[in-house]
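Annex B. Sample input.
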Amino acid sequence: MSTIREAYLQASSFLQRADVRDAAIVTELLLCHLMDWSRTELFLRWGEPFPADREEDWAGYVLRKASGEPVQYIIGEQEFYGLRFHVEQAVLIPRPETELLVEEIVRTAGSLWREDTPLVVADIGTGSGAIAVTLAVQRPAWRLQAVDLSPAALEVAKGNAKRNGVVERVAFHEGDLLGPFLHGGDADGLDIVVSNPPYIESEAIEGLEVQVRCYEPHLALDGGPDGLALYRRLTEQLTRLERTPRIVGFEVGQGQAPAVAELLTHTGLWAEVRLVKDLAGIERHVIAVRR
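Annex B, continued. Sample output.
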């Protein structure tokens, strides 16, 4: 390699031949991360010699991407709601559609409470902490409870809470769904429960694209035979809380929203259960409200 531009062209061509989607954009992301440059700086320094001491790392990045590894795991980072989150293979990569769930929770809460009301909010299956941390940043008066079954995921989430300056307002619990709040464990009660649980049908996991099937944690993907197992368990647990949350928000898989809405409606605990579409027009979120 002789220049940054030549390294970019060689790598993007190689990734394109390896059937990597958006190979040019991926190459930019990897190169910016390697050099610790912004995209603007990358192009301003296009003609500079490629540093010899980084050639081995660069080759490793490109080969990892060619094998199907998500670029977010290679660079260790993903943006969510304007914040930066560390990600690794212990957690799912936060998706853009989940930003809409955060927006809907904030908007719906705003119709029930003042912005400075000190609410208690539980994020069930927190993973990287994207939902919990973002809600804590958006609403400084809220106290977040983040739950995950995976100790490794909780460590990632704790790091992201610290990175984004809200670690003092997020409590972390290792446990199974709402388990930490049952049997007297929710002395303060939960005002809002939000979750993006596993919802992929067990048999469908082997048919997922390589970067999901081979790299993202199956614990955070497998939703049982019909993909609805976690929603059934969550709904049943919600009925056993000492105080019913006024807002429940779930992210769901394509085609699952009516069934999940029916689970919540059937409890009779929430007067309003509505479906929210994502930017592609898919019913992606189920919101239950007790006014």
